[in-house]
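[Meeting: bench + compute handoff]

Bench side (C.D.) handed over the final construct sequence. Compute side (W.E.) agreed to return the predicted structure before the next meeting so the bench team could plan truncations. Sequence as handed over:
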Amino acid sequence: MNEARLGVDVGGTFTDLVALGGGGLITAKVPSTPRDQSEGVMNAVEASEVEASSLLALAHGMTVATNALLERRGARTALVTTQGFRDVLEIARQNRPSLYDLAMDRPPPLVPRDLRFTVEERSGPDGEIEPLDEASLEEVVSAVREAGVDAVAVCLLFAFAHPEHERRVGEALREALPEVHVSLSSEVLPEFREYERFSTTVADAYLAPKLAAYLENLAGKAEEAGLPSPLIMQSSGGVTGIDDAIADAAGCVLSGPAGGVVGAAYVGSLGGYKDLLTFDMGGTSTDVAPIISGEAQTTTETVIAGVPIKLPMVDVHTVSAGGGSIAWADAGGALRVGPHSAGADPGPAAYGAGGEEPTVTDANLFLGYLADGTELGGQVVLRRELSEKALTALGEKLGLEAEDVALGVVRVANAEMTRALRIISVERGLDPRDFALLAFGGAGGMHACALAEELGMRTVLVPRAGGVLSALGLAISDIRRDYVSPYLSPMDGVDAEEFEKRFAEMESTAAQDLTDPEHTRRADLRYRGQSFELTVDADTPGKLEDRFHAAHEQRYGYSMEDEAVELVNLRLISTVPVEKPDLEEPEASGGAESGRREANFDGEWIEVPVLDREKTGQGSEVAGPAIVEFRESTCVVRPGWSGKVDAVGTLVLEKGDE
């Protein structure tokens, strides 16, 4: 393969690779290596047998930052703030994680109180009120040194508008403690709202040392193997260099899921489907996201592991329902699935690697959706008798036969995933019936038709590279940087020259950071008195209000055109597009049916045809009930569904009329 782009995505269970170039598509899937994810990356490259000298780029998506937040295994971090505001991080907002559970606490802040320090200074909306006291700064630097931390977050009041004091504090810390990572809120998130700014900046400092260690290790291995320096996927859906990724660590927490959404938008658009709900079911979790008019939607309202991170991120909702999610009986005797996962080690019971509890994969294997003896990732062989044994053991606790347990596990997992799809569609003001469901991930195709039926959706898309679509998305992702300029003003007070000047300043910065970038202008707006904003296109200030009213109508079902509208932030998305090769599906190469087997649909065992996706081609048809086996995944075509393979290799399934 000449001049290929490589994408490698690390998931909780498997590490996926896609090499794109010269009209060809090479894929590989190997087990993840949780202790050092870079080993899995290099194993995938080795398994693909792609020549290092032929690679133009290596793009990488990983879960290092996500896992560090979920497991609270980031760096020992200190916080430096304005005197009197030491506890902003702990006071947070007037909300609770579970409104009616009086015993449930918020997750503890990433920085404990004894590592939160204050300096004497004060700025207000119009600038300096009290100068920075150098003596208090010296005391803080000394205290931080004695605390033995790995990172420091600096968040001073009004630093988003007047960063001079904050820069001085950062300069003193960096000079005195060169080995300690320092994150300044005026660099990480120059926006108003103290709590979210503090939280995002602290997350950035907390994650940076761990991310730096991982990425530098990966870069060393890539260089040793003659590979290009890795580009890292950001949560916003674009890639950036290693140094920039480390400098924006909080912007990498959705690195893995973002690649899948980019890949889904690309493959869907090639086939003519621009409005999609994406459904990425892996071994550990399921990620869902909306795509409108061919574009992945982003949000700045993301909360991960109880930590608000107010940076642009792909609007992904994640639930802990994956192939490895463990089924169990609760104290009341009800069947539950997840959130605990068998992961890659020991994995589902069927792996025979020490796992004894049944998982969603075990249920799918028992019901005939997966074949007994199926090989996964070149190293794992599924054994149905082990799944049956685990399901039977759980059935004894529930008073059910193994078959009923398996059907129940799939039904419970489907209910959890349907709920997730409703959150990113119905709760966003979108009717799922107007969208196609694009299913990917190792387990996505097995559940897609059932979920579509629940939501009234009539079209399901399963791409040829569905099992490794996140890696495909990485391979075709543009280089991207996001910029923000706070501009709080009533719309009738917005000065057109100031508006243009602020965008010009951001574009000038982007021109220094990137080579010949393309720019997209956006703005955050709200009705006066609201505590949240909506983001709309901002190519000209004249159309902002109309766009905001329309966006509010779609999201919340109403607009208030007689209310005053406020501008809050100006945003700039700067991208350097990469060449995106077309996907071409060859004609079918002969009989696609590789055999028949018994599979259970809604409690009834039916002998169904099993189709080999490698032997189907453009125009090949399939009618349910049937099972289509892809190289890295399986698609279960339920009764009443039928379709064919399109010109870009996507299996397009349609629900027939009852």
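W.E. noted at the follow-up: The CA atoms of residues 150 and 180 lie 5 Å apart. C.D. will use this when planning the next construct.
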